[in-house]
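Researcher: We're reviewing a set of sequences before deciding which ones to prioritize for further study. For each one, I'd like a predicted 3D structure that I can look through quickly. This is Type II secretion system protein H. If possible, include the structure in token form so it fits the rest of the review sheet.
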Amino acid sequence: MRTPQRGFTFIETGATLAILAIAATLAIPGFQDLLQRRHTEGVATELATDLQFLRSEAVARNQTLRASFSALPGGGSCYLLHSGAAAACRCQPDGSPSCSGDAQQIKAVPLPAGSRVSVQANVGSIVYDPRHGTSTPAATIRVTGLDGRAVHHVVNIMGRVRSCSPRAEFGGYHAC
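Model: Here's the predicted structure for Type II secretion system protein H, in token form for your review sheet.
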């Protein structure tokens, strides 16, 4: 008498692998989209937190502090949190920060050309006043992903950050 064999045949294994390959191929674009959205949201959240931190740090240090925004060659961008004049700290073409005089860098966030996200502002820098906790000028800063989806941070003269997303592209953000 013959005992039945256990396990899978080569055809069954091949068919299963083919189905898994097709499912993975269909899931990859959705996964890439998810990664892009999360990366954009991550940079947007970090920027909003940095702006709020800079406001409170100016008051705590009793020192005028500044957030400066610049474009890097080849399509990248960078923002710096620092003391001193607007031109005292800059992002170098490679994204590294450079400060001159008595200016001190607090934080630098380079987003090189190969990055999935860029930051653009309608001003070169925002100054935070330590005496009143205010900022000058009011600004809009856009965090934009490669797919064109964006989160906008609107900084008012009181130094408060209001975030929104055009067409409500990201959950948790109001439409701009």
